[in-house]
Q: What sequence folds into this?
């Protein structure tokens, strides 16, 4: 049984990502679980464009004392597992463009997600053949309009209607929702601590886990880190990565201390190790929103 942190290597980790990674480690440690790191590198174009990022992410995590108890796995090396899972799911081809979905779908959810209206589910063979000649299809699961409720450790019950979401994109890449569930099940992950932006994906992922014959992990979504305008932290917000902060005179120990302080575990600037923080972490207390201020001067 394990917790995990599963970054996508498309850009260097910023303090928001690092804080989530730390919370995931501390939660696993304080609940007696192993901790795993998994590289989610299925989006080949974006990963290739960000060459060397996975290695820098792992080095930055290690510098903070955040390491995996088992060898790090990479999703790009596990494609056969996703293919195997697909064979066990009811799927259909979808030829819709983004625009067609936007025109046919109901209004997007608060997080911008547009539930798929099921357009391609009932196409006849001739129509399929014609559309397939126009563009390569994505694969969607037929979720049968299920409704799923999951429990988040801190947010409580979260209910979602499951649309026919994409499990293989039309460029052939396995979709995040499929890979994340297959890997969490295969790796014995029973605790998922991650950013609040993924809370609304949890019912979809739980549906998939159950459909694959397993129980979903326990979810615990932590508050995001925002800039001083209240927007989700991004690279443009200045010194936000470990390398940026080192250039401003903050070593990894100092950054760890800031992260620990943001979780209410130590005073800012107090020297701490990840192990110290694990002994102070209270799994009942949700890490809330954090407003990031970069070091002065
Ligand atoms: N790889 C995903 C991301 O970096 C996170 C996956 C997860 O924690 O479920 O956004």
A:
């Amino acid at each position: 049984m394990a917790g995990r942190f599963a970054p996508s290597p498309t850009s260097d980790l910023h303090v928001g990502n690092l804080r989530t990674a730390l919370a995931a480690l501390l939660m696993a440690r304080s609940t007696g679980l192993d901790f795993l790191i998994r590289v989610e590198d299925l989006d080949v174009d974006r990963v290739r464009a960000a060459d060397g990022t996975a290695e820098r992410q792992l080095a930055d995590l290690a510098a903070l004392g955040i390491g995996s108890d088992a060898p790090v796995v990479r999703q790009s090396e596990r494609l056969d597992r996703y293919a195997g899972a697909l064979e066990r799911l009811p799927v259909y081809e979808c030829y819709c463009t983004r625009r067609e979905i936007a025109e046919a779908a109901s209004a997007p959810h608060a997080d911008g997600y547009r539930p798929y209206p099921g357009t391609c589910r009932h196409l006849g063979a001739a129509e399929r053949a014609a559309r397939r000649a126009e563009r390569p299809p994505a694969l969607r699961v037929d979720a049968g309009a299920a409704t799923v409720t999951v429990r988040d450790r801190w947010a409580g019950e979260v209910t979602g209607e499951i649309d026919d979401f994409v499990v293989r994109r039309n460029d052939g890449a396995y979709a995040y929702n499929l890979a994340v569930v297959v890997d969490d099940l295969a790796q014995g992950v029973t605790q998922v601590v991650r950013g609040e932006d993924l809370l609304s994906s949890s019912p979809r992922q739980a549906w998939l886990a159950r459909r694959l014959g397993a129980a979903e992990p326990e979810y615990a979504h932590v508050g995001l880190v925002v800039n001083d305008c209240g927007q989700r932290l991004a690279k443009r917000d200045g010194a936000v990565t470990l390398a940026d902060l080192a250039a401003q005179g903050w070593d990894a120990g100092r950054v760890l201390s800031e992260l620990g302080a943001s979780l209410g575990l130590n005073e800012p600037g107090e020297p701490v190790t990840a192990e110290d923080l694990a002994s102070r972490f209270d799994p009942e207390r949700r890490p809330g929103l954090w407003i990031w201020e970069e070091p002065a001067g």
Residues 6-8, 40, 180, 194, 198 surround glutamic acid (CB under 6 Å). The chain has two domains: 2-76+224-291, 78-222.
